[in-house]
Amino acid sequence: MKRARDFGIPFSGRPGPLNAITDIVGLEVGYSTLWEGEGRVEIGRGPVRTGVTAILPRGRADRTPCYGAWAALNGAGEMTGTVWLEERGLCEGPFLITNTHAVGVVRDAAIQWMRRQGYDCPFALPIVAETSDGLFNDMDGSHVKPEHVFQALDDARGGPIAEGNVGGGAGMMTYEYKGGTGTASRVLTSDQGSYTVGVLVQSNYGERKSLRIAGIKMGERLADDRPSLRGGVTLPDNRARYYARWTQDANQLPDQTGAGDGSIIVVVATDAPLLPHQLKRLAKRPGLAIGRLGGVGAALSGDIFLALSTANADVSEDGAARNVQQYPNLNLTALFEAAIDATEEAIVNSMVAGEAAEGANCFYVPALPVDRVLALLAEHALLV
């Protein structure tokens, strides 16, 4: 499948060989995607459009923790384990992403999996993040089970990875187009150390009119093909309000319609030897990429970011003192720029890969019209 830059959409920076988070040597990604049923929601029966995404920073064979940190642009969301991460500066075990109401079962299953894999820790606090697929999926139906978490973890691999309607991103929407999972990477120049920065996003945010690609504000010119309810489904009042902006004339709705609310989870991984305080700085940078594309960190958006480093192979917390490497603080700008550029491309990749689909309550989400995007970019001589 073609990705954004394959169509000539311009991005800054030099990508790695895979242009994916898996350009970080050893890092593995796995998915479990649940997709079944159609029509009106019957809680517990579907329709189901959801899943689990799993990231193993050093791969299945290496259970050594990584230095890590987190940050939020807007905190209307959840990422478990962040208090311990903040205190300790270490990511131990897998990182998982799912839907809002599946965080608990995913966290509990991750603990079971870690024990089966032989993680030697007195207690486990896995990092699990979420974005809401409640418009598109029977999110109250508890469809994500422990076996789906085990599948995502056991299937985690390096190499090229799928994007769009997969894993935890299955039921997500970005700028009112089908979005979901996206990835990209950047490689620093030799004088900067030739380090790699890889990004994976679960993208579920943004209002159409705000969309910018390559700096061009194009969302308003693409406003004719918006999500919609199909099939004449009648909804109870307590559900109808969630779909109000797609069942009424958007121009007649009050300003506080939830437009642009949603969430995005961004994982930034690097092989540069960054310490936790430096990773904290790196973890703030995806917000600048979201702003480039027109995101504003809306009031009900959960924009939460994790940064980790696979360098410093020995980060044990006991025993004798040990030496670690540290990237120069004053040289971090190149890594910041790489993270911003890779996040921007990963989000666009999630939309390019996202396939139009109908979900819960016959809610239809269109795909990004790539041909129209290319035509708008061509008007500004921006295609490469």
Pick out its properties:
384 residues; alpha+beta; 9 helices; globular
Helix-strand string: EEEHEEHEHEEEEEEEHHEHHEHEEH
Number of separate domains: 1
| Alpha-carbon Rg, integer | 20 Å
Q: Can you tell me the CATH topology?
A: L-amino peptidase D-ALA esterase/amidase
**Separation of the first and last Cα atoms:** 19 Å
Which architecture name does CATH use?
4-Layer Sandwich
Largest sheet: 6 strands, mixed
Question: CATH first level: which class?
Answer: Alpha Beta
Q: How much of the residues is beta strand, in percent?
A: 15-25%
Strand numbers in spatial order across the main sheet: 4-3-15-14-10-9
In short:
The chain has 384 residues and is an alpha+beta fold.
Describe the 3D structure.
This protein is α+β, with helices and mostly antiparallel strands and 384 residues long. It has one domain: L-amino peptidase D-ALA esterase/amidase (4-Layer Sandwich), CATH 3.60.70. The chain has nine helices and 17 strands. It has a six-stranded mixed β-sheet. It has a four-stranded mixed β-sheet with strand order 1-2-5-6. Strands 13-17-16 form a three-stranded antiparallel β-sheet, with no helix packed on it. A hairpin with a 4-residue loop joins strand 16 and strand 17. Helix 2 crosses helix 3. The radius of gyration is 20 Å and the shape is globular. The two termini are 19 Å apart. About 2% of the residues have low confidence.
